[in-house]
């Protein structure tokens, strides 16, 4: 049966918006029976730099992480490492699609929603709402291993299905700022 040529479609770019941003958020970590919460700030310098600072509720502690390109620094206690998803999922939490190259991509479009399976076998699943990265999933052996979901209501959710650990962020505000002091990129 003859068909029509389907339009070729590419994934949206999935880059950070231009200009430096300071994003203030509340966070909650659930790891097994432990729950911790507090406030945080992300200082984002596109195209590829972010510093995250986490402050434990009640002033009981703090920690930081710096991601520049593929280089992630997370000094300090193990608790801080639990707050930081793997690099591709951390970038996805901020709206940037930064995945290792893979050979196959299959896409499906439903209105303004675009879903793609990346890799053969599938290693990543990505969902865009228009040009906005909405969800990234890491898949292994046909199972969902971990994911980041970015809601339209300023909520970001990370979940590791393997460790049953989750991190929820609620963005309080996102402000355009001038250049950051270069010292913030050193921990």
Describe the secondary structure blueprint for this structure:
Layout: E1 21-31, E2 34-45, E3 49-56, E4 62-68, E5 71-73, H1 78-82, H2 87-94, E6 105-110, E7 113-118, E8 124-129, E9 132-140, E10 143-150, E11 155-160, E12 165-176
Antiparallel strand pairs: 1-2, 1-12, 2-3, 3-4, 4-5, 6-7, 7-8, 8-9, 9-10, 10-11, 11-12
Written account of the structure:
With 187 residues, this protein is mainly beta. It has a single domain (21-174), classed as outer membrane lipoprotein receptor (LolB), chain A, CATH 2.50.20. The protein has two helices and twelve strands, in the order E-E-E-E-E-H-H-E-E-E-E-E-E-E. It has helices spanning 78-82, 87-94; strands at 21-31, 34-45, 49-56, 62-68, 71-73, 105-110, 113-118, 124-129, 132-140, 143-150, 155-160, 165-176. A hairpin with a 2-residue loop joins strand 6 and strand 7. The protein is globular, with a radius of gyration of 18 Å.
């Amino acid at each position: 049966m003859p068909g029509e040529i389907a339009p070729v479609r590419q994934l949206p770019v999935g880059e950070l918006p231009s200009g430096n941003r300071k994003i203030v958020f509340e966070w909650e970590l659930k790891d097994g029976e432990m729950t911790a919460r507090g406030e945080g700030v992300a200082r984002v310098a596109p195209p590829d730099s972010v510093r995250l600072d986490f402050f434990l509720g009640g002033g009981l502690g703090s920690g930081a992480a710096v991601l520049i390109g593929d280089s992630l620094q997370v000094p300090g206690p193990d608790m801080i490492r639990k707050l930081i998803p793997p690099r591709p999922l951390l970038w996805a939490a901020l709206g940037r699609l930064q995945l290792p190259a893979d050979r196959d991509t299959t896409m499906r479009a439903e209105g303004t929603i675009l879903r793609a399976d990346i890799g053969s076998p599938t290693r990543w699943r990505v969902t865009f709402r228009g040009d906005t990265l909405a969800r990234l999933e890491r898949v292994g052996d046909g199972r969902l291993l971990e994911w980041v979901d970015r809601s339209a209501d300023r909520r970001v959710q990370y979940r590791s299905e393997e460790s049953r650990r989750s991190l929820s962020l609620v963005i309080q505000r996102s402000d355009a700022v001038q250049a950051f002091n270069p010292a913030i990129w050193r921990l």
